[in-house]
Specification:
InterPro entries: AmpC-like, Beta-lactam-related, Beta-lactam/transpept-like. This is Beta-lactamase class C family protein. The protein is α+β, with helices and mostly antiparallel strands and 673 residues long. It is built from 18 helices and 29 strands. It folds into three domains: 128 residues, Mog1/PsbP, alpha/beta/alpha sandwich (Protein Transport Mog1p, Chain A, 3-Layer(aba) Sandwich); 376 residues, DD-peptidase/beta-lactamase superfamily (Beta-lactamase, 3-Layer(aba) Sandwich); 88 residues, Lipocalin (Beta Barrel). It is 27% helix and 25% strand. An eight-stranded antiparallel sheet has the order 11-10-21-20-19-18-17-16, with helices on both faces. Helix 4 runs parallel beside helix 17.
């Protein structure tokens, strides 16, 4: 689902997710994920099948199927509208069936690439205030003159927690009798020079359309490097091109390398995937004693433990000098919000702790961060000859690095601040096993090659034992229709073709790692812009098209993404005050604090009001919501759209409230009487 008010973190971009029925935290190995029923049909009025969300209460009414979340604060409704002028009218008529009097304004309306036999597919999001902590949206699918409408009205907490189940329903929603393409038994074609040039041309044209300055690319098949290099520039000002050794932050693609280190330790007999975490690091805590005692090594990296994202703690309270122990401290007082194995919930602190524990096992007398860095160098980077890959910001900044970019308020690329002591990406340093590596397309292809060969080098030497390496791909929790998360790696099927993948995101950097075992193909794509997000799935689909002569969809995706990109920009700008309300900005306290997120200062620099929590800062504007609440809104391209609600506590102190899906944080002014 589109998120208008999102902000980069170490995103994996595994957004299409679903539920898993396995809930035994002490299993010897993950049980096969039990599929939901093949399809749900309801009388003659619904010409579709889909997978219903597990554990939601189902209510079937004439021309309406309704699902209520176990928490009671989320509803999905399926309604068929027989006649409507367009998707917006069909959606509004459906809302009147579910909730008579519904009159929210449309925030965003965009046609998507139609799938599963539908002739038209549209996503519509409706206005809500940040204080409501709710989301309202519709997915509208047309078959001839009938409109199938999927409505969602849910709290942000439940939507975040059960996003996987909603995506599963939406992704599986198919016209009755329609068969998607299936190349599961087809033989892949060779990626000859013509196909590689077609791929590069596609990336070059797409990057230009999406305003992505530079892209690193590498592709191999049958053990042969077919291409490593890039398109576009690493620096807009100098025009220097992206090359095979140009460095990008690979962000969450670090996770797969961290789990490869864990696999090496399993091979060495120094740990087992099902060892208790406390057997190797007794000071580890995750909430209660019972939860801590149940946690196994595999649970740190499977996204199946039920622990939600907790990114604000490192975004606001981290930096280059913060200790590695922060990752452990973040987990000590939190509990999972779903059962082990029940739902996919992505968390960055857990894999960070896994990496530090691996380093500690190998070098127990060293600091956690230094032990991890040394372990990765000696057991991963050196054996794979990834000589340009580094965790050192200083080395990366001094080397052949692609500068990071985002779009500014004028919809133009702007360079993001990234120095040794300033910039958003410095916040990842204490959490680097989850997302702190810099690498190049050439180096990342060596990592890809190791996955394709299951641990055997190009000269035939076995570098990693096959069984623990492949264990990382075993499904731990379902992550969508034919899609699963393992341990730092994802597995999914595109048109029946198995793809091993993972994505990554930091400020101004997007990455995607791709392995297609059946075609003996591996690829990596790295971008130096936040807008690179739109290119990742299209690149993957283009590869499938070239390998299997699949129906062309990648170009359509880019066209849709470019339109979506512009509409998101226009929506964001339309909702805020430019310039900001001077009276609101002038009434902000000079300094605020939160016991978890730390301090933030407010100052005026060159007539701009600046919010500064540490190693990054942002200019501010204001927003007035329909309910009368006032917010300050961050304008930094990395955090654009983040709102903090202006308020006052019971003692009269000024406050700023940050709402982040399953968490909320209140900053209180410091120094007030």
């Amino acid at each position: 689902m589109l998120k208008l008010h999102s902000y980069p973190a170490i995103f994996s971009f595994v957004f299409i997710l679903s539920a898993c029925t396995n809930s035994d935290p002490s299993r010897d190995s993950p049980e096969p994920v039990v599929a939901l029923e093949d399809g749900v049909e309801s009388g003659d009025w619904l010409n579709a099948t889909y997978k219903a969300p597990q554990d939601w209460t189902e209510e079937k009414l004439p021309h309406l199927i309704k699902y209520t979340a176990p928490e009671g604060d989320g509803v999905i409704a399926i309604i068929v509208i027989e006649q409507a002028e367009d998707s917006a009218q069909a959606a509004m008529r459906a809302w009147q069936v579910l909730s008579p009097g519904f009159a929210r304004e449309v925030r965003f309306n965009n046609d998507e690439v139609a799938t599963n036999g539908w002739q038209q597919q549209t996503f519509i999001e409706y206005e809500s205030t940040v204080s409501e902590e709710r989301s309202f949206y519709a997915k509208v699918l047309r078959d001839d003159t009938d409109w199938n409408v999927i409505l969602v009205d849910a709290s942000l907490s439940t939507l975040s927690k059960r996003r996987s189940q909603l995506n599963t329903l939406e992704q599986s929603y198919t016209v009755v009798g329609y068969e998607n393409e299936d190349f599961s038994t087809a033989k892949a074609q060779k990626l000859d020079a013509k196909k590689i040039e077609s791929l590069l041309s596609f990336v070059r044209e797409s990057a230009e359309k999406l305003k992505v300055p530079g892209v690193g690319i590498a592709v191999m098949q049958d053990g042969e490097i077919l291409y490593e290099g890039g398109v576009g520039v690493k620096d807009i000002d100098t025009g220097e091109p992206v090359g095979k050794d140009t460095l990008f932050a690979v962000a969450s693609n670090t996770k797969g390398m961290t789990t490869l280190l864990l696999a090496k330790l399993v091979e060495m007999g120094k740990l087992d995937w099902d060892d208790k975490v406390t057997d190797h690091y007794p000071d580890f805590r995750l909430g209660s004693t019972e939860t801590t005692d149940n946690l196994r090594i595999r649970h740190l990296v499977c996204a199946c433990t039920g622990l939600p994202r907790k990114d604000m703690t490192w975004i606001f309270n981290s930096g280059p000098d913060a200790p590695a122990l922060m990752a452990l401290e973040d987990l000590a007082n939190v509990e999972p919000t779903s059962e082990f194995g029940e739902l996919y919930q992505y968390n960055n602190q857990m894999p960070a702790v896994a990496g530090y524990i691996a380093g500690h096992i190998l070098y127990p007398d060293m600091d956690l961060d230094k032990a991890y860095d040394k372990a990765m160098q000696e057991y991963i980077f050196n054996p794979l000859k990834m000589h340009n890959t580094t965790f050192s910001f200083a080395n990366a900044l001094a080397g052949n690095i692609a500068k990071p970019y985002a779009l500014d308020n004028d919809f133009k690329p702007i360079e993001l601040v990234q120095t040794a002591n300033q910039g958003f990406n410095l916040t990842v340093i204490p959490y680097r096993p989850s997302g702190g590596a810099f690498s190049s397309s050439s180096d990342m292809l060596k990592y890809v090659a190791n996955e394709l060969s299951a641990g055997v080098s190009s000269n035939g030497k076995r570098l990693y034992a096959e069984a623990p390496l492949l264990e990382r791909r075993v499904p731990s929790v379902s992550s969508g229709e034919d899609s699963y998360y393992g341990m730092g790696l994802s597995t999914k099927k595109i048109a029946g073709v198995e793809v091993i993948e993972h994505g990554g995101s930091l400020a101004g950097y997007l990455s995607q790692f791709i392995v297609i075992p059946g075609a003996d193909v591996g690829a990596v794509i790295l971008t130096n812009s936040d807008e690179g997000y739109y290119l990742l799935s299209a690149f993957q689909n283009k590869l499938i098209e070239l390998l299997y002569d699949a129906t062309p969809k990648a170009q359509d995706e880019i066209e849709v993404f470019a339109q979506e990109q512009r509409k998101i920009y226009e929506s964001r700008i339309s909702e805020i005050d430019l310039p900001g309300d001077a009276s609101v900005l002038a009434n902000l306290a000079p300094r605020y604090e939160n016991e978890i997120l730390g301090d933030a200062t407010i100052s005026v620099i060159d007539d701009e009001t600046i919010f500064d929590p540490g190693v990054w800062k942002s200019a501010l504007t204001t927003k007035t919501s329909n309910d009368g609440s006032r917010s300050i809104v961050l304008l930094n391209p990395v955090m654009f759209g983040m709102e903090l609600v202006v308020g006052q506590d019971e003692k009269g102190k000024r406050t700023l409230k940050l709402i982040d899906s399953q968490h909320s944080y209140v900053f209180t002014e410091v120094g007030a009487q």
